[in-house]
Amino acid sequence: MGSSALWVFLPLEVIIAVACCLGNALVIWAVWTCGALRQPTFCFIVSLAVADFLVGSVVIPIAVLVDIGMITSFYGCLFMCGVMTMLQVASVALLLAIAVDRFLRVRIPLTYKSTVSKKRLWMVVALCWVTAALLSFIPIFGWHRSLGADRTECRHQEGSRAAGLLAQQQLPAA
Q1: I need a labelling partner for 70 at 20 to 30 A (CA). Which of 36, 51, 117, 152 fits?
Q2: Does the predicted model carry a pTM greater than 0.85?
Q3: How do beta strands 152-154 and 70-72 pair?
Q4: What is d(CA 155, CA 70) in angstroms, rounded to the nearest whole number?
Q5: Helix axes 118-137, 74-107, angle to 10 degrees
Q6: Alpha-carbon gap, residue 87 to 106, rounded angstroms
Q7: Would the pLDDT of 151 be above 70?
Q8: What's the average model confidence in pLDDT over 145-159?
Q9: Which residues contact 20 (CB under 8 A, 6 or more apart)?
Q10: Other beta carbons less than 10 A from residue 136's beta carbon
């Protein structure tokens, strides 16, 4: 990323991160304080707000480090990319869970409350988070760096930003 693009990109990232954190903190606070919002379905909303809060407070700062090409160990870079991927996958999985919950509410309105219990909803939330963690951190246990490479530039691979984050190992200049 060019120097001038970096100085445009960084303030925008900070604004997005702050807005993301504030908005999701308000959602968590609203559900926490308002008794009417303590229905079982709102466990999905709170979990999604937590995931999105973590995206704003963890993923965006890590993505900035990756964009500037931070020098780190291969596994450090892989861990950072794993954290970013996990939080984003958890967010999408929770959106899917909310959609399925709403579908069930419409599809089986008479038996919804007996079928969809608070315990089952929290089990689905836990399943979303565990699945996201497994899918995101599996590469740490199977990817190995080449011999002779002591440091890695952790950055987005050229041309693949829209496809996601990739850890690319580069040999240090001799």
Answers
A1: 51
A2: no
A3: antiparallel
A4: 7
A5: 150
A6: 29
A7: no
A8: 56
A9: 52, 53, 55, 56, 57, 60
A10: 20
**Residue range 83-121, pLDDT digits in tens:** 999 999 999 999 999 999 999 999 999 999 899 998 999
What is the DSSP track for the chain?
--HHHHHHHHHHHHHHHHHHHHHHHHHHHHHHH-GGG-STTHHHHHHHHHHHHHIIIIIHHHHHHHHTTEEE-HHHHHHHHHHHHHHHHHHHHHHHHHHHHHHHHHHSTTTHHHHS-HHHHHHHHHHHHHHHHHHHHGGGGT--PPTT---EEE-PPTT-GGG-------PPP-
- Among all chains, which residue has been given the structure tokens 């780190």? 72
* Nearest 10 degrees: Cα torsion 93, 133, 160, 55: 70
Cα angle, residue 138 at apex, residues 45 and 65 outer, rounded to 5°:
70
CA 129 to chain centre: 10
Cβ-contact 128, 92 below 8 angstroms: no
Q: Which two tokens stand for residue 149?
A: 């490479």
2 falls in which pLDDT band (50, 70, 90)? low
Banded pLDDT at 39 (limits 50, 70, 90):
confident
